[in-house]
Amino acid sequence: MVNRHPNPVRPDKLNDEITLNSLDVLTPLGQTRSADMLHSLRIENLALMDAVSLEFENGYTAVTGETGAGKSVLLGALALLSGSRADKTLIREGTDTCTLEAALQLTEPRDMDQMLEETGLPPSEEGQLLLRRVVSSSKASKIYVNGAMATLAQLQEIGKQWIDFH
């Protein structure tokens, strides 16, 4: 279940706990299988962050750093990509847009693809789900799923499938 607050996301106000589907999962037969995982994340002009691109490997990933290093900004980016409402004050000062992109590798894309198709969005290609969100200070924000324009409600439904904030 995704815990969402009715107020827009503020990176400085987010909890520091998040579950990404990037760990091995124990199946009922006691065998392990690799779960869905965040493969890459790109952030441009979010809060104080100019631009960053991250690539994630299989297995557990821990994000650590000193106060002010940007951990909450990463959480804010993931929250926005999972459908949280955007506050235009999150856009880095001196810029007009904030762009967030993520690529997720789905091990069993059937359920996600079915949900995407039911909502009129293109299915994943070879299990890869592509999310992009552009928040503008002067225009309407844009959301893309697998290259197609999407709504915030669609992004929220997708977010319930790939991330869990605690």
How does the SSE layout of this entry go?
Elements: E1 18-20, E2 24-26, E3 32-34, E4 37-46, E5 49-55, H1 71-81, E6 97-105, H2 110-118, E7 128-136, E8 142-145, E9 148-150, H3 152-162, E10 163-165
Antiparallel strand pairs: 1-10, 2-3, 4-5, 4-6, 6-7, 7-8, 8-9
Q: Can you characterise this structure?
A:
There is one protein chain. With 166 residues, the protein is of the alpha+beta class. The protein has helices spanning 71-81, 110-118, 152-162, and strands at residues 18-20, 24-26, 32-34, 37-46, 49-55, 97-105, 128-136, 142-145, 148-150, 163-165. The strands form three sheets. A six-stranded antiparallel beta sheet has the order 5-4-6-7-8-9, with helices on one face. The protein has a two-stranded antiparallel sheet with strand order 1-10. β7 (128-136) and β8 form a beta hairpin.
How would you summarize this macromolecular structure in one to three sentences?
The chain is α+β, with helices and mostly antiparallel strands. Helix content is 19%, strand content 33%.
Question: What descriptors fit this protein?
Answer:
166 residues, alpha+beta, 6-stranded antiparallel beta sheet, two-stranded antiparallel sheet, 3 helices, 10 strands, 33% strand, disordered N terminus
